[in-house]
Amino acid sequence: MRSPSNIAGSSPFAPTFPAPGAGTDAGTGTPESRLARAWAALEAIPDPEIPVVSIRDLGILRDVRIGADGSTLEAVITPTYSGCPAMSQIEEDVGSALEAAALAPWRVCTVLAPAWTTDWITDAGRASLRAYGIAPPGQCTAAAPAHHVKPVHFVPRTEPAEAVACPHCGSTHTQELSRFASTACKALYRCLDCREPFDYFKPY
Hints:
By secondary structure, the chain is α/β, with parallel strands linked by helices. It has helices at about 30-40, 85-100, 125-130; strands spanning about 15, 60-65, 75, 105-110, 135, 175-180, 185-190, 195-200. It has 2 domains: about 15-110, 2-Layer Sandwich (GMP Synthetase, Chain A, domain 3), CATH 3.30.300; about 125-200, no CATH class. The chain is about 20% helix and about 20% strand. The two termini are about 35 Å apart. The relative contact order is 0.15.
């Protein structure tokens, strides 16, 4: 049975899955081979809300590493926003993939800092979003080191710096209909040329 999540504010890493007690694979293969197998197993996991893009391409899967004990495999994930309802499903999917690949002992670690940003979406992920009919976000900030602390500023909302291109016809003659669409991280737009509605993945 899975233990409840335990995100500690004083620790940057919080294990959300206990390592299974049986069927460990730590004694077979090199650490490098275990990491390669883990990446192969995890990078194919689809996002529960947008199944055409993987959790790796969305930037949710941050790292796969060997823990401090030298044997436990750690899969590091970051939620797209605090309270995202898909995170529990992602945790279960990651755990199931690691278990199916016989990579025990393992744990899933949820990392809250640095906070996820749409800048972490890969080029392949953006292409998949566009092909699915979702306008991908533009670049939000300049590249920064992984340890960089990004302050949060509460300011009035402004329009996107660049026009949102329609994923169906490519026109930038588009209009926002609602700030919130099928999920909280997307806005609802329509194209004024081809007249098709579409979701826009908001940059943040």
